[in-house]
Design a protein that fits this description.
Length: 263
């Protein structure tokens, strides 16, 4: 399978995303308690910082593959990640919190991925996106603020496809790798995923608890998401285009009018 379906998907995404964005009324007043707002904001600060990069180095590596269609699709993928950062920034303003200038986890992640080739960098991205998927599910399903639930649904819907996009590229890259080598690589990949999941569950434990998901429940769910994604990469012969219906109008979670506490 070529990357044309992905390029078509990413080009068609803005209209689908706009349905979500139009429903995000940041002029509302949050029903969160001050303590809950601080915990959610502290968590979103990390994500806002992590998704705001320009992707220049990643795109340079992609261009060296000689596949202009993949590179064009990856460029649109980077734009979607930047949109997430902009949404997190709006959410921080909504929660009366400022963005972070830096954080150790983001610095470590950036330094590591910049030292790697395209395939290894994409493997790091797949770790980060798959373990974070359950975090956005927690926001979508359990945040006691309808706007934060909607934000979680917005990002979750994108990340499902982003993970499939990374799986497609990585599966292509490992298609000719002997099974024994794939097994060894997969084992090492698991150590990275376990570390990332532990850091996320600890660093975001306050927000997770606000959403009714204690870290002990989040951690195995995050690792299951990684297991599904990484096993797909290492299983030869599978093809991963966009999900059926990915560009159709989403099911938007509705705000509860009783939760509106505007004065």
């Amino acid at each position: 399978m070529t990357y044309e379906p992905w390029l078509t998907y990413f080009r068609g995404n803005p209209s689908r995303q706009q349905i979500f964005d139009d429903a995000l009324d940041w002029s509302r007043k949050t029903p969160l308690t001050p303590a809950q707002a601080r915990l959610i904001a502290r968590s979103l600060q990390r994500f806002e910082l992590g998704e705001g990069g320009d992707g220049e180095r990643l795109l340079t590596k992609a261009a060296q593959t000689g596949d202009p269609v993949y590179t064009a699709a990856l460029k649109l993928f980077v734009v979607e990640e930047q949109k997430h950062s902009a949404l997190f920034l709006k959410a921080l303003q909504y929660l009366s919190a400022a963005p972070l200038e830096s954080h150790w986890s983001d610095r470590a992640f950036v330094l590591l991925r910049r030292s790697l080739g395209l395939r290894m960098e994409l493997m790091l991205f797949l770790v980060a996106e798959s373990v974070a998927l359950e975090y956005f599910r927690a926001l979508r399903d359990g945040a006691p603020d309808p706007l934060i639930r909607l934000l979680g649904a917005r990002v979750y819907s994108d990340e499902i496809e982003h993970i499939r996009f990374q799986i497609h590229r990585l599966a292509d890259g490992y298609a000719g790798t002997p099974a024994a080598v794939r097994t060894l690589i997969h084992a090492g990949w698991w150590f990275l995923a376990l570390g990332a999941a532990l850091v996320l569950s600890w660093d975001h434990r306050g927000a997770l608890r606000v959403c009714g998901v204690p870290p002990r429940r989040f951690l195995p769910a995050a690792l299951r998401a990684f297991a599904t994604a990484s096993s797909a990469v290492m299983s030869p012969g599978q093809k991963f285009g966009p999900s059926a219906g990915a560009c159709t109008a989403p099911d938007i979670p509705q705000a509860d009018p009783a939760a509106d506490t505007r004065e």
